[in-house]
Structure formats: structure tokens, C-alpha cells
Amino acid sequence: MARSLALQSRAWLACGAAALALAAMPTPALAQDIAPLEEPIDVALRTGPLLPGEVLRSSALTFPSILEAFEREAAARSDQLSADGAFDLMLKGEYYDRLTGFYSGGFGKVEARQPLRPYGAEVFGSYRVSDGDFPTYENYNFTNQLGEVKVGALFSLLRNRDIDARRFAIEDTRLAASQAQLDVMLVQLNVQHEALRAYWRWVAAGEEIRVFEELLEIAEARQVGLAREVNEGARPRIALTENEQNLLIRRSLLEEAKRNFLVAANSLGFYLRGSDGQMIVPTREMLPELARMEAVAPVEQLVATPVSEVIQSRPELQTFKLALERANNRVELRRNDLQPKLDASVELSRDFGALGPGGPGFDSTDAVVGLTFTVPLQRREARGRLQRAEAELRETELRQRRIADQITTEVSNIIDNLSAALKIADLADAEVKQASAMVQAERTRFRLGAGEFFLVNAREEAAANAQVKAIRAKLAGRLAEASYNAATMNLTALGLE
User: Fold this and answer.
1) Residue 114 phi, psi dihedral angles, 5° rounding
2) Residue 115 belongs to what H/E stretch?
3) Helix crossing, 315-338 with 380-447: angle to 10°?
4) What is the pLDDT of residues 422-447, one digit of tens each?
5) Is residue 96 part of a domain?
6) Number of domains, the chain
7) Does the keyword Oxidoreductase feature in the UniProt annotation (predicted)?
8) Residue 216: inside a domain, yes or no?
9) Is 5 contained in some domain?
10) What is the pLDDT of residues 130-139, one digit of tens each?
């Protein structure tokens, strides 16, 4: 029993020494550490005007789709760490002893193995110490009294020399993490684009309410004057009835505008959120004054950067570059499977201390080399996997070409729409001025008795329609500008810098 306890102590002391050596070795680091997400802050919401920068900041920090994209990136980084684990240092301990029987031999062993990336190699070192007698068929367990130290290495000479499943997984997860990072940018661009569009629709809907409120106020004020004139006999009652009809029409237009504003406010509230992520529906009191807001930049200023340069920086195409690299790596992995497997090994061992029961045959330095060769004769499985990988590579190349052409077409259409929207907005402003002048002239003629009440109402409604048309023309310009900023990755304009 004392011999057994001593053997166990020596073996586990060796395990402890190996563990200390393991702890002293540097651990592999991630290609890119995962930084914690910035804590969302409260949106500066007031009873005063709500500006587009506040909406963009709110959506950038609190919108669920963006936070989901960050979590997907964190998951991809975790996969990268997991793939690196295939090259972790492994420590193994073993103890063997006979409790009864004719032979009394036992041993303790500790071994450390470290996979390496070049040549698919693996190096190892072990320490083993034995005591007692072993039968002839177990005489390889004998060591000298101070034990045996062995070091060695394994190498792949054909298959798995340049690439194998472990090294492929490390590179593939690195590329996947980069794709996830690009996906975050793509989600941010889309969310900020839609948030900005929702904001300008909300502003435009508020402006339309103002137009129809003014139109209704004119009719209500006129109703008071017509009622007095009808009571005095200066006008026929039909004039009062006609204005009542106009009142109903204008109230209907105002209610429809209010409904559109509520829908636009709810849509904007989907992106406007507090620090707790809860949606905030803006009110009319938060509408800004358009006269004080910066106008849409001229098209010539926006298109100063060539479209080709803009397109190359798009995250979709950057993602395809990474996808092609991943597909090429998979093809190389499948080509590797077609090669025969030829592995080489080399070992060096040495016993220390006084001779053990095994005799002088164990008191030497032994160097051993070996070769192992295996090959499947038909290799149909490997050929099938290779053909599939090559087909997926060609599919990715064709999809990349289609997406690049699609982005080029979309950017060109955005520029054309923006140019047309700015011209239409200028024409709409001129139309508003003309319509307002016609209203004033018709009212003057009506007060002088030369005009007709029907024409006054028609001129007022035409002027209101011109104002609504101008509002919607300017909205089209704002939407086109937002689309252009998203397509050209103008991070400052989208609140991402």
C-alpha cells in the first residue's frame, strides 16, 4: 500500500507541474474583442420642436433591429472563440495499478498535447513512472526509478497539410464575424433611412393639417358675416347654404388630414423610443418650423462623389467579397478531402534514475519515426462535396454581379428622383404664389360686387390644393435625400457618427 501511495504521489506531482506549465503558457486571443454596447441615453424630448437628429439618435441607440444585429455579431464572435478552441492545449492524466494478483506492476502518467496550425501538426510531451513487476505482454510499462520523459510530434504530409476542418473553421468563423459586423451596418442604414422617412412624413402631415385648418377658419369667419348679411336682407339665404356646404367639405378634408397625421405619428413612434425602448408617439406641439430647417442640398453637391466609388463601399458588396472568400475556402477544403492521407510521427524518449525491474533495455534514449498512409479508392463522397462547393461558389459570384447592378440602378434612380423632386418643389412654390394672388384678387372683386361667391370658394380651394401639392413636393425631395444618404452611406446625415 505504501508503494501504491508513493506511486500516486509522484504521478500527481507530475500532473501538477504540467498544469503549472499550462497556466504559464499564453492563451490565444480573439481576432477582435467584443466591446460592450453603448448604453442608450434618453432622447431629448420636449414640448418644443422635435428635430430629425433626435429621432435618428433614438433609433440608432434603441431600435430593436439594430440591437438584434449587435447580438448576432456577438454570437458570431463567440463562434470564432469556439473555433479557436480546437487548438487548445490538452492535459491528460492516467493511473494504473494492480490491487491483487501475482504481478504488482502499476504506473502513473501525465501527458500534454498542443495542436499546431502549420502542417496540421501536433506536439506532445509526457512523463510516466512505474513500480512493481509487469507480465511479459506488458513490459512496455516498465520505467527506471525516476520515470520516463517522452516528447514527439505528428505531421500531415498530404491531406490536412495546408487546410483541415479545424483551420477552415477558424478562418470561416472569422469571415462570418466580419459579415455580421457588415450586417450591423446594413441594418443601421436601413433603420435610419426608414426613421428619417417616417419623420418627414410626420412633418408633412402636420403641415397639411395647418393648411386645412386655415381653409376652414376662413369659411367659418365667412359664415358669421353671411349670416348677418342674410338676416339684414343684403344677401339671399342660398349664399349661407352654399357656405355651409363648403364648411362640411372643408371639415371633412381637415378630419382626413388629422387621420393621416395620427397614422404618420404612430409610424414615427415606431422609431422614436425612450431609453427603456418604449415607443413614444409625437404630438403636434413637437412639430418644427420648416422655415428654420436646413433646405435640401443641391443635387450637384450630393453627387460630387462618383457613383462607382459609392457602390464599392456598400456593405452588401463587402459582404459578398467575404462570402466569396468563404466559398473559395470551402472549395479548398473539399479538394483537400480528395488527397490521400500521409502522416508522419517522430518520438524521443528517455528514462532517468536507477534501473527499474525492466532491466538495462529501458536505460536508453529512443528515437522513433513512423509513417501512415490511407486513401479511399473511389472517393465519391469527396468528389460530390467538391462539386457542390464549386457550384455554390459560382452561384455566389452570379448573385454578387446581380446585386451590384441592382445597387447601381437604384442609386441612379434616386439621383433622378431627387433632381426631379427639387424642380417640382420650385414649381409648386411658384404655383402657390400664383394661387394666393388669384385668391386675393377674387376676394377683392367679391367685396366690390363684381365677383361670385362660387369663384371665391374655388380660388381658396385651389390655393389650398397648391399648398398641399407644394408640401408633398418638398416631402418627395426630403425622402429622396434620405434615400440618397442611405445609399451613399452618409453616416453623419443618418446620425451614425
Assistant:
1) -130, 110
2) strand 106-115
3) 170
4) 888 889 888 888 888 887 877 777 66
5) yes
6) 1
7) no
8) no
9) yes
10) 988 889 888 8
